[in-house]
Queue: 2 jobs
Job 1
Amino acid sequence: MSTIDVQGVLQGLLQQVAASDTPREVLKAPEFKQMYGAIAILPAEERGAFGREVNQVKVTVEQAVEARENELESADVVALDVTAPWSVNGTKPQLLPTNQGTQHPLTKELDNVIDIFTRMGFDAIESRQIDDDHHMFGTLNFPEDHPARDGYDTFRTEEGFIPPAHTSTMQHRILKDGKAQLEAGGHIAAISYGRVFRNEDVDATHEHTFYQVEGVYVSKTANLGQMLGTLRSFFETYYGQTLRIKTQPAYFPFVEPGLEFAIEKPAAIGGKTGDWLEMLGCGMIHPNVLREAGIDPTQYRGFAWGGGVERLVMLKYGIEDLRHFEAGKLAFLRKFKS
Ligand code: DAH
C-alpha cells in the first residue's frame, strides 16, 4: 500500500483551485509528482489500482480548473433583469469594468493598416456587408455566366443580394466618386476595408467570414512600378523591417496585367531564403472597369490590390489557426491586451 492519502490530496487540490485566480497553476502542484513517483515503487500487483486512482485525481482536478476558469471569466458580469420595468431615469446597468476589456486583435491591426495607408495619402472607407451582383461582378468586368465567377463562392439572400466575397465591390463606387477630382487635375487614392464572406468549409486556414483591404489609385501616369513601391512600403512599415518581394502572373477579370504579390518570410519570425508568402492580388485596373465608372481609359490609368487582413496578423504574431479570431475565447483575446 502507498502511504499517500490520495483522496486527502485531492480534497486539498480542489480547495486550492476554488480559491485561486490562476487555477491552471494547481496542475503543476508537487503533489502530482509525488503521486506519480509513488506508482513506480509500489509492488507490481498494486500499481494498476493505485495508478488509476491517481489518474482519476488528475482528471477531477482538470475539470475543476476549467469550471473555475469559466467562473472567473464571468465573475464580474452581473446578470441584468430584462423583465424589470425600464425607466429613463433609472439606475445605469452594471457593465464590465473597462480595464477588463480588450480591443479585438483584428480591430487593432486594421487600425494600424488604415493608419499606414492614410499617412501615405489614401482615403479610407469601410466596405458594405451587403451588396449586389452589379458591384460584386458586373462593374468588375465579370461577364454574365463567366467561369471566373465560380472562383468566388458567394452566399445570396432570397432577394438576390450578396454578402460580398471581396472588398473589390467598392472599386466602382470609389472610381465614380473620384471622377470629378481626377478631371480637375487630381488623382484617386483610396482604400476600402471590411468584412467579406465566402461559402467555405472552415479549417485552420479557411473561414466563411474574414477581413480584406482593397486599394485603388488612378492618375494620368499611374504604373506598375508605383504599385510595387506602394505595396513594398506598406509591408515594410507594417512589419517594421526591409523585405524581399516578388510577383507572379495571376488572372483577375478586373485587372490587366494581374499579379500575385509575395513577400519573403522574414528571418526574425523563422523564415528562410525562398520562403515566399503570397499576400495579395493586384494589377493595373482593366480599361472596362474604368470605362464602366465613366473614366476614359485612354486618358487615365490605375492600379488596384486586395488581400486578407488575417494573414497579415497571423504572420506578425505567429498565430497558427485562423479560427481563433472568430471563436470569442477570452484566453486568446487577452493576449492582445495593451
Ligand atoms: N478581389 C480579389 C480576391 O478577393 C483580390 C484582388 C486581386 C483585388 C486583384 C484587387 C486586384 O484589387 O487588383 O480574390
Note: The pocket of 3,4-dihydroxyphenylalanine is lined by residues 166, 168, 214, 252, 255, 258, 281-283, 304-306 (CB under 6 Å).
Job 2
Amino acid sequence: SKTPVGFIGLGNMGSPMAKNLLKHGYPVIATDVFLESCKELQDEGAQILESPAEVADKADRIITMLPSSPNVVEVYTGANGILKKVKKGTLLIDSSTIDPSVSREMALAAEKMGAVFMDAPVSGGVGAASLAKLTFMVGGLEEEYTAAQELLTCMGANVVYCGQVGTGQAAKICNNMLLAIGMIGTAETMNLGIRLGLDPKLLAQILNMSSGRCWSSDTYNPVPGVMDGVPSANNYQGGFGTTLMTKDLGLAQHTATNTKTSIPLGSLAHQLYRVMCARGYANKDFSSVFQFLREQDEE
Ligand code: NAD
C-alpha cells in the first residue's frame, strides 16, 4: 500500500489537488489554518493535523500550496513549521507561486535538515486542478525528479523539469505575466466590440477562430454570458484572485528589475491590477478586469 502524502494549504487549488491524491489511493495527511477546508477534506478521507510540524512528523513526502512567499517561509521555517520535525530524506514539493530566491532559501534550509526541497508551481486554474489537468513546472535536483513526478502526475497532465531549484518559479512567473497581459487584452477587446454593437458570444467565437485567440478568450472568457463554468459566469467568484495575480506581476517586476530586463506591458499590467485591488476587486477572480474596464468607460 502507498505511504501517506502530507498536504499543506487547502485553498482553491490545494483542495482539489489533495482530492486527486486521495483518488489515486494515497493516504493524505493535511493541514490548513482555515478549518472549514480541513473539514471538507476530512470528509473525503484525509487525516487532519494541527500544524505543518505534525504533518512533517508523519509523512515523508509533503506538498505545500500556499498563497505567497511569506506564507511559505512561515510554513517551512516557522515555530510550528515543517523543518522543525522533518525526517531525513523527506521530499518537500512547493507548488505555490513565489519568489525564486525564496525557493532557493527553502532548499538550503531543507538540505541542512537532510531533506530535499523542489519548487513545482502550477498553471491551469481551479478547473484543471479538479480534473488533474494541471501543468507543473519543476525545479530542483534532477535525481529527485522521478520521485516528485510520481505524485505530480496524479494532479497534472503535464510535468516539466526546468532545471535547478527556482527555475520552476521562473517559468511560472513568465507564464503569468503573459496571462495577465492576455487577459487585459481580451477584456478590452471584448469591451470595444460590445460597444461597437457586436454580440459578445459571436465576437468570442470569431476571435477563437482567428489570430486573436488565446486562453483568456477561448477557455476563461472574462465577459459574463459568453461561457459557462468560468468565474465570469459566477460574478467573478472563485478562480484565481486579483490579489494573487497582482502578487505574480510583482514577482515579474521584481525579477525583471534584478536582471535589468524591460517588461513594459508586464509593468503596466502590474499597475492596473494594483489599482483594481485598491478599488474593491481584490477578492474577485482576475478576469474581473473586464468589469473594471467597463466602469472606466464614459456612458
Ligand atoms: P488560496 O488563497 O485559495 O489558498 C491558500 C490556502 O493556504 C488557504 O486555504 C489558506 O488558509 C492556506 N494557508 C495560508 N497560510 C497558511 C499557513 N501558515 N498554514 C497553513 N495554511 C495556510 O490560494 P490558491 O488559489 O489555492 O493558490 C495557491 C497558490 O497557487 C498561489 O501561490 C497561487 O498564486 C497559485 N496558483 C493559483 C491558481 C488559481 O487559479 N487559483 C492557479 C495557478 C497557481
Note: The pocket of nicotinamide-adenine-dinucleotide is lined by residues 8-14, 31-34, 37, 65-68, 71, 74-75, 96-97, 122-123, 125-126, 239-240, 244, 248 (CB under 6 Å).
